[in-house]
Amino acid sequence: MYQKIDVQFECDCGEFIEETVDAPYPDFSAEKTRDSVNELDQYVSCPACSVEHTLTVMVSFNDASCYRGECIEVMCDLPYDPDREAEEITWAIEKNEQPETFRFHMNNVCKILDLDATVECEFSLNVMVHGYLIAAIESYLSTTFIFFVTSHKELMSKLITTDPVFAKKNIKYKDLIVEYENLKVTVASYLNDLIFHKIDKVHLLYKNVLGIDIEDIGWLYRAISIRHDCAHRAGYSKDGKPVEISKKSLFELKGNLERLVDTVQANVYNVVPNTKSVDDSPFI
After folding, report:
1. pLDDT in tens, 219-242
2. Are 235 and 100 members of one domain?
3. Could you tell me if 201 and 159 are in contact, meaning their C-beta atoms sit under 8 angstroms apart?
4. What is the gyration radius of the CA atoms in the chain, in angstroms?
5. Is residue 177 part of a domain?
6. What is the rounded CA–CA span in Å between residue 154 and residue 16?
7. Which helix (H) or strand (E) holds 73?
8. Is the Cβ–Cβ distance between 199 and 137 less than 8 Å?
9. In angstroms, rounded to a whole number, what is the distance separating the alpha carbons of residues 144 and 126?
10. Domain containing residue 72
11. pLDDT, tens digit, 9 for 90 and up, residues 77-133
12. Boundary-marking domain end, from 47, 76, 105
């Protein structure tokens, strides 16, 4: 049995590939982290040129990495358990608590940044807070979209009829009833795999399905790129240089994220006015 991991890399033809592949569990019998590494080869074909790439996924107790060929590093997120993902999908379908959960995380960030950390600890603390902020917005954007789309037949129909993956799906007559009964879960699972760590996909789906045009978010792409170094190299780049994160940059990122959530909250109820959350007041 394997975990799943999301990978992103550029093919030699120039095509940017995003895929979910299997990842091994670490060797839980190992006594030291360096001895806990397990490897697994996965194969991903480029949709543009059909070249098959061999990816080597490596997982230890506290890290995951992926390489293409001999030594080309591939961007990847941390591996996740598919069973736990199923629980998250159920929560996203049934619960409209996304803004409250996001607000809870933002309040915690303020408290954490107010801690009197030593100079030696401040960098490590900032690295962890940066990753926490990105995880909070990824979760909000993904689960909010899933909740509203799966709660409204019109939106689910719009997604299914316009999305290329669903458009190619063939269903036998004998499977129609089963597919219909499981449609919410099918759509939610597909969306969860597609957009949770892929902000570019989130941007397009919000615009095409909900009609919400999230404005320029180049700052968010940059923050996600920094998060990769935070998650996989404890705040250091491939060149061994520490990432530039400070309390000031974290408060700026927090403010940008809150304004982004305010924009979504202010517009989503224009699309689906009969679905209200417990707390939809603005952050600022």
Report:
1. 998 998 898 888 878 888 888 898
2. yes
3. no
4. 20
5. yes
6. 32
7. strand 72-76
8. no
9. 27
10. 3-76
11. 888 876 666 566 665 556 677 889 999 999 999 999 998 888 889 999 999 999 999
12. 76
Which position has the token pair 């780049």?
A: 237
Tokens 């700052």, located at residue:
219
Residues 180 and 239 in one domain: yes
Global pTM reads 0.65
- The pLDDT, as a whole number, for residue 284 is 41
Q: How far apart are CA 243 and CA 247, in angstroms?
A: 13
Same domain, 137 and 236: yes
**Do 63 and 118 fall within a single domain?**
no
The contacts found for 182-185 with CB under 8 angstroms, 24 or more apart, are 183/156, 184/93, 184/150, 184/156, 185/89, 185/93
pLDDT number for residue 276? 45
Interval 160-208: pLDDT, tens: 887 776 666 666 656 556 565 566 777 777 777 666 667 777 888 888 8
Is the domain of 174 the same as that of 240? yes
What is the distance between the alpha carbons of residues 243 and 42, in angstroms, rounded to a whole number?
A: 30
